[in-house]
Amino acid sequence: MRDSFSNYLKTIYEASFTKSITTNKQVATLMGVLPGSVTEAVSNLVAAGLVNRQKYHGISLTATGYQEVCQLMYRYRLCEVWLDQTIHLPLPAIPEQAWLMAAIDNAALLQQLAFKLNQPSRSPFGGKLVLQTFEQASEWQSLETILVGQTIVIESYLENPSTIRYCLHSQIASQQVFKCIGQATDIEMMTLLDSQQRELLISTVVARHIYVSLIADHDAF
Predict the structure, then answer these.
(1) DSSP letter string over 185-197?
(2) How confident is the model at residue 1 (pLDDT cuts 50, 70, 90)?
(3) Which of 56, 132, 210, 212 could tie 152 with a disulfide, CB 3.0–4.6 Å?
(4) Handedness of CA 137, 209, 74, 66 (dihedral sign)
């Protein structure tokens, strides 16, 4: 998936995943490009009816843009599952290769691949293959927003090599349960407690790209 529109649509979706809106700066940071490049690309996306841009409010996908993202992310994450389950590619290497493979646009081939993989619903990183409808608000929130005392389930995390390596090193995986027991804003760290009473320090910079759902404390501890 090499064309610029697809790259930017995917990144805008990822950058606005839990809040439905993002900024040039956030998109530029995730893509590793200059903000000026994002400004030009977003102008083209606005002209194509795929993105909205409002002064002082940021960038968001239109219904048409979101529909395109749904197709992109399905193909992308289906390829991620294949590279993980069949090829056993190391997890940090999967997103880049899966994105290149996601140019596949043959419905019959995609159906056959999904069948061979037992109709997967999630990527190796927890992301859903079939996204919610455009009208639905995100069902998950960023780990960064969790308050002390709240208990959460890790649902997914951003599919880029640095986040994947961090989660692997910290042994964070989809469906793990944690309780937030501390927030240190001065050093941008938060402390999580697992069901075995083990403490884990997480950078809030990374935590904003880890997506969770809230659960009742008595269900896990």
Answers:
(1) TTTTEEEEEETTS
(2) very low
(3) 212
(4) positive
Could you tell me the two tokens for 91?
Answer: 């997890």
Token digits of residue 133: 């409808």
* β-bridge mates for residue 210, sequence order: 157
Domains of the chain by start residue, with CATH:
4-61 (1.10.10.10), 69-138 (1.10.10.10), 141-219 (2.30.30.90)
Q: Is the pLDDT of residue 161 over 70?
A: yes
Q: Which of 62, 94, 80, 78 is nearest to 129 (CA)?
A: 78
The pLDDT tens digits of the residues spanning 73-86 come to: 999 999 999 999 99
Name, in order, each residue with C-beta under 8 angstroms of 61's C-beta and a sequence gap of 6 or more.
9, 12, 13, 16, 50, 51, 52, 69, 134
Eight-state DSSP code of residue 128: B
Q: Nearest CA to 99 among 210, 14, 209, 205?
A: 14
- The tens digit of pLDDT for each residue in 52-79 reads 998 877 999 999 999 999 999 999 999 9
Neighbour-count burial of 213, counting CB atoms closer than 10 A to its CB (0-12 exposed, 13-18 middle, 19+ buried): exposed
Ordered DSSP codes for 16-65: TTTTS-B-HHHHHHHHT--HHHHHHHHHHHHHTTSEEEETTTEEEE-HHH
Q: Model-level pTM?
A: 0.93
DSSP conformation class of 133: P
**DSSP H or E run through 154:** strand 151-157
